[in-house]
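Final report, closing paragraph on structural work. Over the funding period we assembled a curated collection of sequence-structure pairs, and we close with a single example.
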Amino acid sequence: MKVIVGSKNPVKIKATRNVLEKIYGNVEVTGKDVDSEVPDQPFGINETIKGAVNRAKNAYSDDLDLSVGIESGLMETPGPITGYIDLQWCAIFDGEKITLGVSAGFEYPPEVIEEVLKGKEVGHVMDKVTGVDNLGQKTGAVSYLSKGLLDRTENTEQCVLTAMIPRMNEGIYFK
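Its predicted structure, as stored:
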C-alpha cells in the first residue's frame, strides 16, 4: 500500500504510518508539502476540516492508494478557561471519497490564546512559552501540557484512526 501525507511534518507522517501499519501491515508512507488553502492558524470546524481535506486532495495522485491531510485548529467552545479547544482533524482520500476523523481536544494556556487572537500562530507562541524550538514537530504542545502523558504522535494517531473507521468497516459504511 502506498500512502502520502500532505505535509512534511515528521509527526504527521509517523502517526499515519503507525496507524496504517496496524490496519494493513506493510505500508509505504511519505510526506509532501502541499497547500492547505486555509490560514496558517485555522479557526473553527469548517476552516480546519477544509484544510485537512485540501491537504489530502492536493497530495493525491493516481499512483497512490490513499492520501492523508491533517490539520489542527482552534474551535470556539463555551465553557473552558479561554473559550477555545484545539482539535486535530484528519481527512483520508482515495481518489473518490473522503473519510474524516478527529483527535481528542485540549486547551492552550490563556497567554497562548491571547497571542493567537492577535494574529500569531500557536506553534510560535508555544515555542516561546516553553523555550523549545519547533515543539510541534517534536513531542508537541499536548505532550508538554499533559506532562508527557499524551504526546503529539499519539494525539495525531487518534484522528488518523477515527478517519479510518469507515474504511475498516466498508460493508457498514459503503453499501
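Residues 2-169 form a domain with the Maf protein fold (CATH 3.90.950.10). Residues 152-168 form the longest helix (17 residues). We thank the funder for supporting this effort.
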